[in-house]
Design a protein that fits this description.
- The protein has 475 residues and is mostly helical.
- It has 3 domains: 14-201, Up-down Bundle (Growth Hormone, Chain: A); 204-261; 265-475, Growth Hormone, Chain: A.
- It contains 17 helices and no strands.
- Helix 5 packs antiparallel against helix 6 and helix 12 packs parallel to helix 14 (363-378).
- The longest helix is centred in the middle third of the chain and has 30 residues, at 271-300.
Length: 475
């Protein structure tokens, strides 16, 4: 990449970014949308394929599991293959998985399709973040990541609502037929418009690192996911967490010794990156309460339909989507510190407001408080991500994006398992709906405590725009 005549920085390519961003956002949108699309369709799939709840739930769990395994490996893939080849391959794998799900006559083929979808999606997300950081200079990255935040906010929240609308009128396979044309169009436009913007360093493939990464992150993600249903003391949970932890420790030590690691853990030598990554994880744990607990509570305790529970989350998703580009511009102007402090303060207050549910709680209250909550999150999520990645040299950005996505995936699993466990263990079934709502309220108190921790951490965010990222020294 060369410096243009207008004096742009060497890191800033001179081609038209708009088509490239459109292609990337479209790919990310279907990848994230797909993660929550089956939420309200599972009962229809269970009835059609004659599955029990535990078996059907694997359609959700396996997506998160494979997605989490693929993300750490993506840093290696970004340095090994061209931008175009990697994105087209990831979208093609995702498209093949979508087609398999659409025509799946039996559960095993449906599961295989979900695995392929997750493998493609796990590459797309960190690749997109890396490309964004490569094609935009530091002073414009906030706005660019704001557009990315719009996709992250909007896609998963409309999934349950869209799914509810479709499966109420059409067979569940229609969900995948809706996604497939978007994927095909995105592949065509990517082939025509996508540029090679990442630098290839051709790292050596260390098979042992791949195995340890898969066992480490896969074991932890599976263990935390299974804990929500099976309990923390079950053999499968304890064994998977133990294997995952041991493999991950071995993986980390091996990466520190390799000249060309699969995933560079030295990114944590940059203090702002470390703080913002941990803050993002804590925020994810607090945020996951609304995404997981609210639909369960609304359907199982307050008598709302699946569509209504999805609609309750929609205003918050729309507000977060609208705000993400705005907060991106505010970040470019003011940095992440005060945006984070104000946003997390809103999150703390609204999370405590979710800890006082009763049988008389209305749909309007849930939707309104969740919307304000998502407004607060929109002020934090992308700004802290951008602030942390801004601290890294260009060569470490693929590792930073992979690490950031991996840690949040782990935090999401931990948060889901923890809050579901807290909810079920504190429910009092003998007291009817009020007793079950007691467990919900306690889970949101725990989520609020995590939000308070995030608020304290927000005060430690310092400068978020170094003058020259390639001259950065760890600190």
């Amino acid at each position: 990449m060369v410096k243009n005549q207008s004096g742009a920085q060497p890191d800033e390519p001179v081609f038209n970014k708009a088509p490239l961003i459109a292609v990337l956002l479209s790919g990310a949108f279907v990848a994230i949308l797909n993660q929550t699309l089956l939420a309200t369709a599972l009962p229809h799939i269970m009835a059609d394929l004659q599955l029990d709840a535990n078996t059907a739930q694997w359609l959700q769990s396996v997506f998160m599991l494979v997605n989490g395994i693929m993300i750490p490996i993506t840093a290696f893939l970004i340095e090994r293959f061209t931008t175009r080849a990697l994105f087209l391959t990831a979208m093609t794998i995702f498209g093949l998985g979508t087609l398999m799900c659409a025509i799946a006559p039996v559960f095993s083929i449906l599961m295989a399709g979900r695995v392929l979808q997750a493998a493609g999606a796990g590459i797309i997300m960190p690749l997109m973040q890396t490309i964004m950081f490569m094609i935009f200079p530091i002073e414009k990255r906030g706005s660019a990541m704001g557009m990315f935040g719009l996709v992250i906010a909007f896609a998963p929240a409309i999934g349950p609502t869209l799914s509810g609308l479709i499966v109420d009128h059409f067979p569940w396979r229609s969900l995948f037929y809706v996604i497939l044309p978007i994927v095909i169009l995105d592949i065509i436009f990517a082939y025509l418009l996508l540029k090679n913007v990442t630098n290839r360093t051709f790292p050596k493939l260390d098979i042992l690192s791949i195995i340890l990464s898969t066992l480490g992150f896969g074991g932890l993600l599976y263990g935390f996911s299974a804990a929500g249903n099976s309990g923390w003391t079950s053999m499968q949970v304890v064994l998977s967490l133990l294997i995952g932890a041991l493999a991950l420790v071995w993986f980390i030590f091996r990466q520190l010794k390799l000249e060309q690691p699969i995933l560079e853990f030295r990114v944590f030598k940059y203090s702002v990156f470390t703080i913002t990554t941990v803050l993002g994880m804590v925020l994810f744990i607090a945020m996951i309460g609304a995404a997981v607990i609210l639909p369960l509570m609304m359907q199982n305790m307050l008598g709302f339909s699946a569509l209504e529970s999805g609609l309750a989350l929609l205003p918050g998703a729309l507000l977060m989507g609208i705000m993400s580009p705005i907060t991106g511009r505010l970040f470019d102007k003011f940095g992440a510190r005060w945006l984070s402090i104000i946003g997390v303060t809103i999150l703390v207050i609204t999370t405590f407001m979710f800890a006082i549910f009763t049988e008389e709680t209305t749909f309007t209250y849930i939707a309104a408080v969740n919307a304000i909550r998502m407004f607060g999150i929109s002020m934090v999520m992308m700004p802290v991500t951008t602030a942390g990645l801004n601290q890294l040299p260009t060569k470490l950005i693929p590792h930073g994006t992979a690490m950031n996505n991996t840690m949040r995936q782990v935090a999401g699993s931990v948060g889901t398992a923890l809050l579901v466990t807290v909810m079920t263990s504190n429910s009092i079934p003998d007291q009817g709906v009020a007793g079950m709502l007691h467990g919900v309220n306690i889970s949101f108190i725990v989520a609020a405590i995590f939000a308070v921790i995030a608020l304290i951490m927000a005060f430690f965010i310092k400068n978020s725009r170094p003058e020259n990222p390639d001259d950065i020294r760890p600190r």
